[in-house]
Structure of Glutathione S-transferase:
Amino acid sequence: MLTIHHLRIGRSIFTVWLLEELELEYTVKEYFRNPDTNRAPPELRDIHPLGKSPVIDDDGLILTESGAIVSYLLKKHDPEHRFSPAPHDLAAWGTYNQWLHYPEGSVFLALLIQLLLLRSGVPAPVFEGYSQAEVKLHLDHISSQLGENDYILGNQFSAADFGVCYMMSMAESLGLLSGHKSLSDYVERNKNRPAFKRAVDRAVE
């Protein structure tokens, strides 16, 4: 049986969304953050030493890292390549993999710094200057890639949209999407997908 260890509130809702898009049977093991530290509870370390989420347990196989989980589940459950290009189309497959790993590989640090600065309330000009410039760079880059398309790789939804939507949702919650209507519309479009709504019903409400 497939189990997802889901930390509220955080990125693992986007892995639940993946499970819903794939129409898999799974169970949700829910964890809540420490209200004083906003950190995951120590029970998550019983599942994986890092104590992070998402984590999946697929009949004893423990996997972490969002991109790795996506790749594993698509390899196992998406032989028709509904959510990713077939590997024989090397150019399309390479572009897809770039965008699959881009959000947490390049974008996340800049947004994390913004989040920590907002929580601390302490001025830190060096970090603020770096993060603001990086955020602008990435938002412009994603806007350019998106263009007038519905999704990040064109007008067809792909697994690359899970991570990109997560990052843009995070940016939106930090008030960083002002002036980027196409990105706000992109987040709304993804969150209006039936599978995303089912994920929210299953793992949030």
